[in-house]
Design a protein that fits this description.
about 350 residues; globular; binds nicotinamide-adenine-dinucleotide; two-stranded parallel ribbon; binds UDP-4-deoxy-4-formamido-beta-L-arabinopyranose; 13 strands; 7-stranded parallel β-sheet
Amino acid sequence: MHKILVTGGAGYIGSHTVVELINSGFEPIIVDNYSNSNPLVIQNLEKLCNRSITHYEADCNDEKVLSEIFNEHNISGVIHFAAYKAVGESVSEPLKYYENNIGSLITLLKVMNRFDVSTIVFSSSCTVYGQPDQLPVSENAVIRPANSPYGYTKQVSETILQDCVHANPKFRTVLLRYFNPIGAHPSSLIGELPIGIPNNLVPFITQTGAGWRNELTIFGDDYNTSDGTCIRDYIHVIDLAKAHVKAFEWLEKNTDSIGVFNIGTGNGSSVLQTIQAFEKVSGIKLAYKIGNRREGDVEQIWASNDKAVNELNWKAIYSLEDAMDHAWKWQLKLGEKQP
Ligand code: NAD
Ligand code: WQD
């Protein structure tokens, strides 16, 4: 059984991916420092998968501890989720982001080299594109200067991985450029757990629906889109999780050293459409107001996912309404009072 080291495996996307890895016969080994997650996630994962899951509370910047973990397990591949992801915070605290997001990748790659582990799937982001000229955006679109330190860490990480491929003929990587992951596992055992006020739209919607927040502010309705609000490609987190399993299957079958794939549904939805989907599945009229544009927001972006569909043999199954339904059930499970 292939052992896959999953850094950030207690996080939102990592935890859903652990479930899909187990469902597909892989053996995940979780490494997480719980800087943006909770150890209880591991318990819920074990309940959901009905088995124990190997996990370590460790920091990916800690070369010694990572080496001990590689020494203990015969690891055949790595998925590197561990990173900080708050765009606004990255603007005010850039060094925190460069240190954690780039530092942890470099440390991990050094340890992988030492233990002769040569395959890694990396969590990249559609943020690398900024506002593309052409929509849907494909993988060969121009990569423009990043508009946040967070976005820059993803661009630099992609370059680091490409350089490792060029330097070492055995080294192979898949860069998955995620669009906007939303939703939760339908069991409501795992889901998104934002700490404090959510930055992202969907947790803000569900928390407002649950009464944790008074109202949602829509960041601008004067964009050049059909209803004036921004457009994104919202993808169910389970569909996204499954793409990681497909990435390992691709690495097994393919001889290419590097694969770059957009992971999105291929459809764009506006902020208002997303709210409408929530209202439909929850039966709740959401309290919202129109506010100013948020600095740095791109107007509209959605993925061309042809490459993932054709080469990874992957496709998104869940609809926006499915994802909102699962996100809402997860929110209800969290209870009435904000933790
Ligand atoms: P998350 O914060 O829920 O998960 C990240 C996990 O990594 C957390 O459990 C955190 O505790 C852990 N972590 C952070 N730094 C660590 C370190 N140095 N050592 C060990 N563990 C560490 O975030 P997520 O939404 O699951 O995102 C996972 C990855 O996907 C990130 O790399 C993120 O940048 C990327 N991504 C996320 C989105 C999104 O909208 N959620 C979109 C595109 C890309
Ligand atoms: C979606 C839409 C907002 C909150 C961010 C990162 C990106 C990627 C995904 C990691 C936008 C609007 C939001 C609110 C609103 N992450 N909105 N009111 O901006 O596409 O991307 O997460 O790589 O890098 O930048 O996602 O969920 O923040 O916003 O009107 O309270 O909802 O303006 O149009 P975004 P988001």
